[in-house]
From TrEMBL:
Its cofactor is FMN. This is NADH:flavin oxidoreductase/NADH oxidase. Residues 4-339 form the NADH:flavin oxidoreductase/NADH oxidase N-terminal domain. GO terms for molecular function: FMN binding; NADP binding; NADPH dehydrogenase activity. The lineage of its organism: Bacteria, Bacillati, Actinomycetota, Actinomycetes, Micrococcales. It comes from the Bacteria. SUPFAM superfamilies: FMN-linked oxidoreductases. The keyword Transferase does not apply. InterPro entries: Aldolase_TIM, OxRdtase_FMN_N, YqjM-like. Keywords: Flavoprotein, FMN, NADP, Oxidoreductase.
């Protein structure tokens, strides 16, 4: 059996395999509610054999949405809207995760297919974004710097959102500390110029992430896996580098995090990244090596053989894919075929004729 299609257990959740659907915003929510789109979109990946389906960046508070069309889980009504989506994923054999997020200074922006760019004005449904410091992301409105009660509220919002996620049936939560959103903005010296206990040294800049991990762990108990997505580098001079992030990941592990999902960049518009197949995998390997904790690799992984090699080389314990699942929601079934896995073990019985009777 391949490693990719070997089960993995974290705390009390067993994943049927290690090819996972990366969180992807659909910008298709009405007032924070997931709806029909999310239901079909997420369930199809479970039918397609993924081991874990992580729903998009879901805001812990209304002002934490990237755009007015993001999903949220800031109250019980939105929690209840997630429950049938989770049930649909479970019914098809995959674990269900949710990415809990606060967009920080990148909140209140137009969604990618809105036909407009930049910040949404208040008159058109926008709001004032908040951040560690009043420093704008290039092209966006200047955010308001959070005060101490505001920071404590963010931590409490993550905690309450994690409770609702578990109550909605999600098997795990992933905390979004990457891609230039609020938690990442605290971590990076390029966006955090605070002079209080939430800024300055790496330890101070990491404080909010660690407080969120501790609060979420205390809330969800010992059974539920808690993942953290980090950007391993800001890809810009003076920004975070992978060794900083590996240090923070080690602290986060001690605070109760289980696995690190290692992405990169997104903090500043002037970043310089060179992408290519598996371009972020070395970051996952570095964090794994430095912390001894399991990691997931992500970024241009498009075949079962490529994903298997990442695991065989000891660079990560699981692989997330995003766009390849959008191109082919049955990517995991295809990957299983490439790796000569028994199709009967993964193919839904309703679909298995399509496998047996395939043209050769
Ligand atoms: C994303 N990505 C992303 N990442 C994240 O942490 N939270 C999110 O909500 C989103 N939203 C999102 C939407 C869409 C349409 C895409 C294509 C991507 C990034 C995604 O999870 C993944 O990290 C990258 O796409 C790189 O992986 P692939 O696509 O090369 O497999």
């Amino acid at each position: 059996m391949s490693l990719l299609f070997s089960p993995l257990t974290i705390r009390e959740t067993t994943f049927r395999n290690r090819l996972w659907v990366s969180p992807m915003c659909m910008y298709s929510a009405e007032d924070g509610f997931p709806g029909d789109w999310h239901h079909v979109h997420l369930a199809q990946f479970a039918s397609g054999g993924a081991g874990l389906v992580v729903s998009e960046a879901t805001a812990v508070s209304p002002e934490g949405r990237i755009s007015p069309r993001d999903t949220g889980i800031w109250d019980d009504a939105r929690r209840d809207a997630w429950a049938p989506v989770v049930a649909a994923v479970h019914a098809r054999g995959a674990a269900a995760g949710i990415q809990l997020a606060h967009a920080g200074r990148k909140a209140s922006t137009w969604w990618p297919f809105a036909g407009r760019q930049g910040s949404v004005p208040a008159a058109e449904g926008g709001w004032t974004a908040v951040a560690p410091s009043a420093i704008a992301y290039e092209g966006f409105a200047v955010p308001a710097a959070l005060d101490e009660p505001g920071i404590l509220r963010v931590i409490a919002d993550f905690r309450a959102a994690a409770r609702r996620a578990v109550d909605a049936g999600f098997d795990l939560v992933e905390l979004h500390a990457a891609h230039g959103y609020l938690l990442h903005e605290f971590l990076s010296p390029l966006s955090n110029e605070r002079e209080d206990r939430w800024g300055g040294s790496l330890e101070n800049r990491a404080r909010i992430v660690l407080e969120v991990v501790r609060a979420v762990r205390a809330e969800v108990g010992e059974a539920v896996p808690v993942l953290v997505r980090f950007s391993a580098t800001d890809s810009a001079p003076g920004g975070l580098e992978v060794d900083d992030v590996a240090t923070v990941a080690g602290w986060a592990r001690d605070a109760g995090a289980d696995l690190f999902d290692v992405s990169s960049s997104g903090l500043v518009a002037h970043q310089r990244i060179s992408t290519g197949p598996g371009y972020q995998v070395p970051f996952a390997a570095r964090v794994r090596e430095a912390t001894g904790a399991p990691t997931a690799a992500v970024g241009i992984v498009t075949s079962g053989e490529q994903a298997e090699r990442i695991l065989q080389d000891g660079q990560a314990d699981a692989v997330f894919a995003g766009r390849e699942f959008l191109r082919d929601p049955h990517f995991a079934l295809r990957a299983a075929g490439e790796l000569h896995e028994d199709p009967a073990a993964l193919w839904p019985p309703q679909y298995v004729r399509a496998y047996r009777e395939r043209p050769r």
